């Protein structure tokens, strides 16, 4: 335990979003989460860049091979983002173009997720940490062969100093206050889409206001 | 599969409630469910008799020994119910006084739960079935050593023709219509106590009506 | 085991689709599946009626109370379907209007799903069976408090003669042949949306055809 | 591993209790624990303040919206506690009134729990740690979307130096000696209510003393 | 569901006990239960024959090969029991000597357990059923490769009409009344050994009687 | 429970083996088992035909599309088997060529496995049952989206009268006696490959014979 | 990660064994492990002191109350060990007599286990660490309410610097070499009793040597 | 958290591979993973040395006793590797010959796996760390009694500074770039064998290129 802990929160003005190897072939390897959930989380990850106006970088590994391309939905969200198609490097940091793109943003915090967690996410996260970045691994949007591998990959990153966070935590740490911009107006529809139990709570609340009658409790 | 299925529902005018060996010592054996849940379900079971005004019979096995007495809360709910303290018979049906008490009610449907599921509930359920009763095993209020044993005991009963039901199913099949008596007025507080996620839904709905403002979604 | 088994398949010309109490309040009770998956399955269920042009009936229970309305997405899919808003009956079959709507379709097979599985789905399924229908419970689109309750509710239905099927099984038993209408053209986009691991398989295949290069294996 | 570990125990004269966003709407999001258990643990958390006479602060997030109010039971336990209703800040520490209330207690140890674990509990816990407090996260009374998220949130807090404790550990570390005040007299009924397996142990013991006969073992 | 169910209980005067391939090599294959539990259950199974004075037959499969011999503890319990060492037949019923030994007992009910559940137990159970016996599979004392295989093997037997029972259910159905012989005197030490949570209940009860003081609750 | 059960065992002279849609694309959908295990079981299934000299039929669904071809290993095992490449029919029984191939074998028992369990295996199994075959679903070699779907598909088949068996049970019911042909000589290497814990038992036994020294126990 | 790690192994000449509150009442609270396993592990823990001739100290909490006495088996193993019966202190270190007994041994390493893990084991482990001892928590012999609580308690101890070890690791780290005393002669029977899968391995090996014949593989 | 993290990757020119006690007897103890998976991972581990041309050392513990020899497959892969047969030392580092063999390689990074994880892997890993090596525990190729023991052993190693990695992570960190040697040509067949879901992805991709037609999506 450190004698003194400093809480460095994600700051939308300092943070960069990385979409790492969320390719449709590799997606078949991501079995630590239900496939519907995994896809929803991948799209939610990419959309964070849009809503919080974060510099976003896309990268893929050998996308003309079995790993396949990124889902069209992600490319449609970020048509103008730097997109580095690696042809050999497993660790994206080993690709000079990718490294340059990251550095060009001038950001000091990195939010990332990828498939697989133990390779694509972890290798890059550790390299970024080594390079001096504060690293936030968005764990819901990373996937790998099984839950044991996911847990051990996250443990490895955490032991090195990476912050491992859920979708809700990343989004709320970015937003900070429901009265901000983006705030309620942008984030409620986002949660309605990607955390539907929260969306249903809001829908039910509004339905009660519109034409509800007392429950009788 | 029967060529013709007849759905015999629980009828509050035909049903009898049995509280079987829900003793505080035996309660320690019930590990297929969390202990807090198990206790809640045991009390919910006993309270069904109260709310639906069902003839209710209590029985225990060797209660001055390690099995211990029934929880005071159950006795307080049914101070006047027939209470058969068995001193040796494992299967309550083997106790003449118990059998007489059941027959005296004139009921043809039996709702029962007990600890342990594989012995106290299952043996009695099978004897009742053999004796011609329609038997409803309230599975949430039965407990046993582990989930495997619970599942196999329920499978055994089901194969013989016992209906195995959840708390919510027993309660709703008894109520049938929220406009009945008992209906909303009696059952919402009951669900608020024993199915608190449903209670919270009603509380949240009423809170919205009282002083809610639109969510902004 | 029956001496002779007859396999009655779902037939798109004989089948009726029932959407039972898929309300946004009750949705909070459905915890045997991940919430994202549950929502996806509910929408997939409703969309089956659209794609296979099945007579579809919607019903809700006390929707101005805590149970809340159906999701807008479902209503938008079936704007002209009979929609029976029950005010008290737990078992939809007890509602004369609902029963009339079902009978009016002239269909003999019923595909249904609802929340909760043990009450809304099971009670209705058993009544339909009793009334002579062949009943198909689409289990992926039913939800309840926990996995134990879901399993026991499905076991109860199965013991009575209900067919309990997954989304993929319901859809494929309706389609039968990829060369039919609806067939590949309608069903691949449907699976891409609701079984994304299957969609990704098709996407990856098509990407390989478009600009793939050999893997080197 | 630190070369020298100092064990700072919870001290009832130094500790402050925080009840964070235990709201009835947010409660629907807490699915890493059974809903009955979650509710029991939330009430157990609030009652710790009462029994150990700890300064207690209540806070909610946008309680007129979907998140809803605190359960009446909690408010009834702490009618005079500072109660900060936040209208936008996700992290309670960002609310000046809340921060002032915490500081006004003069306490140096904080026991907290909230919904959701990864946002409401973790963000505040990390801010408190940063501000120099010793932080005890009562994990049984925090809830979130699923067990993976709960575990990762607790791992994040632990890595920063937060102590993550069960209900039994918090209560026993506060009590220290059964002969204290509060001690057996206050804590046995508390455990009987919130850890019923322990309560049943005491009930069974007392029943044996009252009218037990040897088991025959 | 049968129109009329007859509950045939295990009767200690009609029952026969079979110990099937509980060999120390095969024991390594039994991974659906913890190894300590598996061993305890195997010994508990064999000891049932001793306590209830049931005709008991031991059999092994190719015991000089990798399957290995029975544990010495079992042989010591039944030094004079018929012991059929099969050299090839997988299904013990295919061995004439074994079949003769079973028939020689004149019993009509068979309690059996073996390793593996899906082969040694299931094949023999189905053959016994076919031969007209009432068959009770003691599931806690059968083991196999994994829980899925165990469940499916038990499901297969149950569908054919085998009764699948836990250790506690077998023992209690044999005993029927704690006042019988064997009864409390024989069975409490048995449960203390093989169901230690029940034994601890009795020990704790007796300790309270001996020198307990009130809990203070 | 049937009043009289007849145990129809798999007979190598009556049985037919079906390899159904074990295609490399569909294999990605099979997530109810670990991928390594799934592949091993698929190959074990195909090899049964070889070892027991069973008439074997291969079939695929739209293999030039995303479902992909059968693994080369399977085709290499059965170069001369009838191989029906279906272009549209989901249920192989709907394909006239396939149906003819099955009938041409003159066999009355069918052992089958496929991907997915709920569609490819279950639909065909039910059709075969309807057509009068005795059907054995080899559950270890069928795969589907998740364990819940697998369990429900097997339950559906079992309720109709299909025998659901593990790899070990299928192989042993075919072999019957270790002294047969095929027997020890053929089956030990088979188990060494596909049930390696059993293979290791034999290897360890032989190693002890070769150069072991007493353990000292 | 520490810049330099020193591996301090358990040394039988430096180590002390503590048996903490392994009482038969508290044993009912230990539900994170199967009850049979828990009892076996508790006895294995106590027997370590015997085999390795470690100074051993027993302690209980309020043993005339519901917590009950230690199992007779443990007392029989250590009739002459210091036995501190605490009447109020939850943390044994707060009891002067216990602290003195520990110090009197002159040992610097402590192996401990207790019920519950989060209170009896963890509190004492942290106090011992604070007092300068090297602490080894034998996790298999500690038990608590559920697996989540066990994991969090072990995480708390580990974060502070406690070594959390399995039974096999504690025993092997004490033994170090099978040729030592105690070594094979003492430890094989010990493992045969407490890790029966290892015992069966030795038994099978010896059986092969005695009268085995080649497997035929 | 370290103020500065340095990411030391596995370097094929600095790394040494250790195969520790992967013996066929001990293999029966490895139950935290499916037996088929465990065997596959053990062979994958040994083959890493072959593909990456890493100095490899084999060691066994008392291989003429119950632990048994290494699988023939491993010895065949490394016929010329140093092979240290320990006769007593549990921790391989305590064996002078083994220690000399390790030092003789001149390597500074060690990749190891063994059975059991908590003893054979962990003890050696901690000794290597103490001796100044950077240690990579390949967790997929270590096995032990159950998942709890595996997790705790890995946690113990991680807390000391060991890197705990999956098979995919070890292989990819060694390879670094698919264009290296070894690269695609060597590693795709390796993954096809040991991570068959990845192999199937490549097979499906190549099949599409060879004779695929568009899916129709």
TrEMBL record, chains A, B, C, D, E, F, G, H:
UniProt-listed SUPFAM superfamilies: Isochorismatase-like hydrolases
Entries under InterPro entries matching the protein: Hydrolase_YcaC-like (IPR053152), Isochorismatase-like_dom (IPR000868), Isochorismatase-like_sf (IPR036380)
Occurrences of domain Isochorismatase-like (ranges): 16-166
Family of this protein: Belongs to the isochorismatase family.
Protein name: YcaC protein
């Amino acid at each position: 335990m450190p004698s003194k802990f400093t809480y460095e929160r994600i700051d939308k003005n300092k943070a960069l979003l990385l979409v790492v190897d969320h390719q449709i072939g590799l997606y078949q390897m991501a079995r630590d989460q239900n496939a519907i959930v995994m896809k929803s989380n991948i799209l939610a990850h990419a959309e964070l860049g849009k809503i919080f106006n974060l510099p976003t970088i896309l990268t893929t590994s050998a996308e003309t091979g079995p790993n396949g391309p990124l889902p069209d939905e992600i490319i449609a969200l970020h048509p103008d983002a730097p997109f580095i198609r690696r042809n050999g490097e497993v660790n994206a940091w080993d690709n000079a173009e990718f490294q340059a793109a990251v550095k060009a943003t001038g950001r000091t915090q990195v939010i990332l997720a990828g498939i697989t967690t133990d390779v694509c996410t972890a290798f890059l996260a550790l390299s970024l940490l080594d390079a001096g970045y504060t690293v936030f691994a968005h764990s819901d949007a990373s996937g790998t062969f099984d839950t044991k591998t996911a847990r051990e990959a996250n443990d490895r990153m955490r032991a090195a100093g990476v912050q491992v966070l859920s979708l809700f935590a990343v989004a709320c740490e970015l937003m900070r206050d429901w009265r901000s911009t983006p705030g309620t107006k942008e984030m409620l529809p986002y949660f309605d889409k990607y955390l539907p139990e929260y969306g249903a709570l809001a829908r039910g609340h509004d339905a009660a206001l519109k034409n509800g009658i007392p429950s009788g409790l």
